[in-house]
Write a structure and sequence with these properties.
168 residues, three-stranded antiparallel sheet
Length: 168
């Protein structure tokens, strides 16, 4: 009778190991799923921040040089939103939001607080671009890219809407 009992015990140990392994895999799956959903939520909320920031920045645009084009406030030397603007300057991963501007008319030489980037934008009519580095924290998208790269989040503002928002 003793051999039969040890056979049952071995089966019980194997079953317990199988159940334990399954529970570990389920736990790992749930942790990864939670991380994915958390990043998705941060991404959605960061897009809301970018759109809100865009509207504030567009509302501050002015035709400072009288050429008919509304220049946005100039970005800092590190391509960030100026401290004089009261908006959220970091995404929800804690990374600074990259801020790019273009001056579509003649080069602004009138007011140094407003964009004087007279280079053609990557997309016709583009005046403002806000970029979040996304969950990986690396800026894969540059100001001059025609479309977003990797996991970056990008919001663009065009001259027509900038002018409308600025005019109120």
């Amino acid at each position: 009778m003793k051999p039969a009992r040890s056979g049952i015990a071995l089966i019980e140990v194997i079953m317990a190991l199988m159940i334990g392994t399954a529970l570990v895999f389920i736990g790992i799956y749930e942790i990864e799923r939670y991380k994915y959903l958390r990043d998705m939520e941060k991404g959605i909320n960061t897009m809301n921040i970018l759109y809100r920031d865009l509207r504030v920045l567009e509302s501050k645009a002015k035709d400072v040089d009288g050429d008919g084009y509304y220049e946005p406030l100039k970005e800092t030397s590190t391509e960030e939103i100026p401290n004089t603007v009261s908006v959220q300057k970091n995404d929800l991963w804690g990374n600074p939001i990259k801020y790019c501007t273009w001056d579509l008319g003649r080069k602004n030489t009138v007011d140094p607080d407003y964009s004087d980037n007279n280079q053609p934008p990557p997309v016709s009519g583009l005046t403002i671009r806000l970029i979040s580095a996304g969950s990986n924290g690396v800026f894969d998208t540059n100001c001059d890219d025609t479309e977003k790269q990797e996991d970056d989040l990008v919001v663009d503002g065009y001259q027509d809407e900038t002018k409308l928002v600025a005019l109120g």
